[in-house]
Design brief:
The chain is an alpha+beta fold and 178 residues long. It has one domain: Pnp Oxidase, Chain A. The protein has helices at 18-24, 72-78, 91-98, 103-108, and strands spanning 33-35, 50-56, 59-66, 80-85, 112-114, 120-122, 127-139, 142-154, 160-164, 167-171. It has a 6-stranded antiparallel beta sheet with strand order 1-4-7-8-3-2. Strands 5-6 form a two-stranded antiparallel ribbon. The protein has a two-stranded antiparallel ribbon with strand order 9-10. A hairpin with a 2-residue loop joins strand 2 and strand 3. It is globular, with a radius of gyration of 15 Å.
Length: 178
């Protein structure tokens, strides 16, 4: 994959653990996925069409991105991203990322910091999974990105914002399974 930073081979995957297992069970739809910001462009982030856990050995997600998204090429070239899941009270931010807004407007809606890959992590995300893309498969209008999780930030017991049947729903929090 072109455009990867030279130090990436030194990044090591997380070993299987209760945290990686519980993280893979706690996904809600409508997650903004953010590639690594580069020095020549601002951070960019489409809303992933779908996100789910693939395996916990090594911890891997699949993230589906529409190839017609305005940021698709930059997103693919960077090869790094962070999946930020949202909770109650973050519906407006979800709408910013899911709508036809400029990248600047999207990022102005929250406070961000860089993860271990350099990808933007939303302060206040219920669960943030910082990843590198290890493989991609094209299907129809989308690419399915297989993303190895390199770091997890988990707020622990928390609610989730879910988009289902064209409506937002709030799911109450539960303690992560051991």
């Amino acid at each position: 994959m072109k455009g990867l930073i030279p130090c990436m081979p030194t990044l090591k995957p997380l070993p299987p653990s209760p945290l990686t297992r519980s993280a893979s069970w706690r996904f809600a739809m409508q997650c903004p996925a953010s590639p690594q910001p580069s020095t020549s462009s601002p951070p960019m982030a489409p809303t992933a069409t779908a996100v789910c856990s693939v395996t916990d050995q090594p911890p891997t997600l699949l993230v589906c991105i529409n190839r017609s998204a305005s940021v698709y090429e930059t997103f693919i070239e960077n090869g790094l991203l962070c999946v930020n899941t949202l909770g109650n009270g973050q519906q407006d931010l979800s709408n910013l990322f899911g709508g036809k807004r400029s990248q600047q407007e999207r990022f102005d809606g929250g406070q961000w910091e860089s993860g271990v890959t350099g990808a933007p992590i939303l302060n206040g995300a219920k669960l943030a999974l910082d990843c590198k893309v290890t493989q991609s498969v094209s299907v129809g209008t989308h690419d399915i990105l297989f993303c190895q999780v390199l770091d997890i930030r988990d707020q622990g017991e928390s609610d989730a914002l879910v988009y289902f049947a064209r409506q937002y729903h709030h799911l109450p929090g539960a303690a992560p399974a051991a």
